[in-house]
Amino acid sequence: MPSRTTLDVRYVETDAMGIVHHSNFLHWMEVARTDFMKDGGKSYRDFESKGLRLVVIGVEVVYRGSARYGDRIQIETDLIKIHSRGGTFRYRIFAEERLIATGHTEHLTTDTSGRTISIPPEWLDYLKHLHTLYSGA
Amino acid sequence: MPSRTTLDVRYVETDAMGIVHHSNFLHWMEVARTDFMKDGGKSYRDFESKGLRLVVIGVEVVYRGSARYGDRIQIETDLIKIHSRGGTFRYRIFAEERLIATGHTEHLTTDTSGRTISIPPEWLDYLKHLHTLYSGA
Amino acid sequence: MPSRTTLDVRYVETDAMGIVHHSNFLHWMEVARTDFMKDGGKSYRDFESKGLRLVVIGVEVVYRGSARYGDRIQIETDLIKIHSRGGTFRYRIFAEERLIATGHTEHLTTDTSGRTISIPPEWLDYLKHLHTLYSGA
Amino acid sequence: MPSRTTLDVRYVETDAMGIVHHSNFLHWMEVARTDFMKDGGKSYRDFESKGLRLVVIGVEVVYRGSARYGDRIQIETDLIKIHSRGGTFRYRIFAEERLIATGHTEHLTTDTSGRTISIPPEWLDYLKHLHTLYSGA
What we know:
Four copies of one chain form a homotetramer.
Chain A: E1 3-8, H1 24-38, H2 44-49, E2 53-63, E3 72-83, E4 86-95, E5 98-110, H3 121-135
Antiparallel strand pairs in A: 1-3, 2-5, 3-4, 4-5
């Protein structure tokens, strides 16, 4: 069972093709990560307050359909890989219940200066807990 | 004689009306400020590297026309007011030589914690120099 | 009693000052207009489906504070003026219950080619109804 | 020899990490496609004026570094695959001459209603010409 996020397409997210510009799918996936991180009681905001950053080192999206202004968007999010320095999220994005995109983001943990570091044990345990919770692993 | 900035409309800046979304005019005005600040040899990046921030405390835009993907945009920028803690910029925005918007932004100087401070003398002189240069004051 | 909108600050909405970039307040005001328009049973999407556009011809924002990633944003929206061809919205924006901005947007109705037209009676009545409902006029 | 695009990082493109938000790389790749399409005398704007759309059906970015406000960005763009209904672009993105990302976008041609169609011969020839010109194929 994945974590679920719901949002509505904003007018500013559309482009001259009349549909949502493809870059906004990355914004939505980020909102979905925020929700995912929150689902066990801590948050990405807490993570940052410890001087940690979860930077994006890879992105992949396959677009299968489009979304329009006002469409209800739903995102299913899994943490499909977690290791000592980062992990990989997977997303399935629906517009009005049609699957319109699938995607992945890969992440590394850094300090505030951008140096890669190990995830502190307390946070690694938290993420592993969410991984188990949402991915049935 | 105002400072001048040129840019081309990006596809992502358009919306489902087929024209540039009104919020992008604020992005362009910011690019114009960057250019304005640079025109005398220093830059806003230098300003920030001294622990200073020029925050926006007011914005006003009157839209008189629209812009489309690929249009050449030109922005004329003046610093119409400058005082010890901030100032006001004025903008005229053209798309393919038609005036499409006029605007103002009002600013205060803060430190990195967001506390309002006086502009250091060296920077105040620099801004007054640009003010004279571009606004004929 | 104004119409109310709630949203959470997205990471992408922040900038290198660590706070929400001022241009995003226009995006939020647009989300608030979408909610406002919906509150009586019709929607801005319906409005567009009739070949109508409510274009922005003026924007004014006074910033009184800042918002950070994860802050809960609330927007109170009134339609303070309505006439045969357009109207003016007023917004009060709160972050975690602190007032951080007030603003106005002024609008005209156009057809899909951008020509200003009168609001059709059925929609004018609808907007007047919302005006009465939310502004106590 | 790839097509080349130059731009400067805008303040609005940064986020609270102090670096450019990863989603903006998609905006820059789009600007690079606009430049690529123009390099032989036609433009993507012409393409759209014929009722054609080059929609994005896949995106892949590997981030190898970061960019900051004011950095000079350079993008090298190739059209690495072209077929009757679409093609694939490849990008290399540099900030101040450091390689910070590589990416691909995959595209299909549609009509204005979103139906996949074949690229008209005149445009297919044009794109093949650019492909040869920039990719040495």
